[in-house]
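fwd from M.: "can u put these together and see what the complex looks like"

so here's what she sent:
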Amino acid sequence: MRVTTIHAAGDIRLEERPVPVIGAPTDAVIKITAGCICGSDLWPYRGENPITAGSTIGHEMVGVIEEVGSEVRSFKPGDFVIVPFCTCDNTCPNCDNGAHSACVNGGFTTGGQGEYGLVGQADGSLVKTDGMPDPSMIPSLLTLSDVFPTGWHCAVSAGVRKGHTAVVVGDGAVGLCGVLAAVQLGAEKVIAMSRHESRQEIARAFGATHIVAERGADGAKRIKEITDGVGADAVLECVGTDDAMRMAFQAARPGAMVGFVGVPHGVKLPVERMFAKNVGLAGGVAPVRRYLPELLDLVTSGTVNPGLVFDSVMPLADVAEGYRAMDERRAIKVLLQP
Amino acid sequence: MRVTTIHAAGDIRLEERPVPVIGAPTDAVIKITAGCICGSDLWPYRGENPITAGSTIGHEMVGVIEEVGSEVRSFKPGDFVIVPFCTCDNTCPNCDNGAHSACVNGGFTTGGQGEYGLVGQADGSLVKTDGMPDPSMIPSLLTLSDVFPTGWHCAVSAGVRKGHTAVVVGDGAVGLCGVLAAVQLGAEKVIAMSRHESRQEIARAFGATHIVAERGADGAKRIKEITDGVGADAVLECVGTDDAMRMAFQAARPGAMVGFVGVPHGVKLPVERMFAKNVGLAGGVAPVRRYLPELLDLVTSGTVNPGLVFDSVMPLADVAEGYRAMDERRAIKVLLQP
């Protein structure tokens, strides 16, 4: 089968590898209907994370079960499933606590930018649809693998509640899903920080009430104006850089929470400011499985359309171009069709 | 009147100064019944905070109103009041949001280790008792000025809920009040980290179910044992050092919250660990006024006896010895009688 590999910064290849086989009795093999490129894939692509040359890359996918291990009870070949980027047994104490991404039997999905994927802890990790979905639903279903629950986790971690004013730092696909999540969780004002017209449009489609194009001190000033000088009740940091984190804390009102879901790169937390202003921080690797039943309902009922974040669809053969397009911010998020 | 001043590290004096006078129409002058020394007073005493030579020190007090400004409506001379260490109007947007310590008209109380104190925003800041309290109640009432609501804020910030396992890092008066708060908020197991027998005793009196004397990796190991390998649901960091913060994050289970109320000194937050384990952090300067009605009820009803943290009572004249006793950890917390 063909699967995407990374050999060095900027060196993405589509290679022939054996179709994965069931290793553990809890595994499942998935024939991938759609995969995609994640913002976090750009860290190694840009040389900012270590790379094992020739390793597969890609952790988001939806598809049809091809084969299951002997202990898998809830799924059978032919089921259409959402594959969370992090796997879990959904029964350990961490899963019971809602921290599925720290499952004691968990791991990460790989091979998502390919033809077949291998998923561990299939019973605990996967969620299936009622029958085969309409092709028009595939993009939104694919967002359930990572980007939508990650934005959702950011909003939940930021404590977004009815009537809140929420600020979203970052206009990538996660940030846009954070806008969608904040709106769904009842925020009255949702301020998307974005300088890109195409991203602003999606933010508005997701329910953003305000767009702030300024950054840094100017951005903080605009947010103060919008919030009558108080600051935001909840802030979603959806990037992972020190600048973005700094912006998030500048936007927060005293007593607010900042949610964060961007893998931190060079972030130094402003502990003195946090203390003086009582601004907390929570978040991390999204416990996708925890949110899936609720978010799948939102998608299948047509309440939300997170698939809008895919502004580019490419055949798997063009994966290297997909990376270039996202790296150069020509594309928000690229959907890959095997 | 006599009031405590600090001139240099280790140089505490009791000096004659004029009795404070009403400056703003929202002020009140308090004849102090009891004041005390705060753990945070030890930072300048130890030379770890900048000092303005000759400035007054001390911010905790209870006493009787001597005089009020022309706009003070809710209090009159003769009322016995709790004086929060941070003042607030209790009406601004930050107060409405429960962030009273960031009140736009707020400030800090001073002169608490003296005979008379001046309090700003009297109507918003103060809470009075029903009549003059019995002298036996004074220590517990005095804890409402800072240390008990600060421990309470730590537990609230850590998200302590019914059935939780809570760990308290720090066995100073704030940490001990954190134990009391965690118990009152319904924690099933409360683990006090303490190596001092007299402090362990108070922790037990406040409801601690476990004492862990070990620190660092050994302490984390003991907490893992007590929590069946999972870690604590909520951790209260009541010190403010990097070691204590590190300990707090080691004790937390995935998805937990760390509350923090010790003024951070040299703390570097472990953002990568926080992200990987989904362990959040919240807290800061305690919004005392927010909690006062509830905590005053707990005290006056006899439900709790936070005054136990005062293991030493001295006349105001001995204030310098009080500082020495706390600095050398001979005393947990010193109550001063003017």
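replying to her w this: Chain B has two domains: 2-146+287-337, 148-283.
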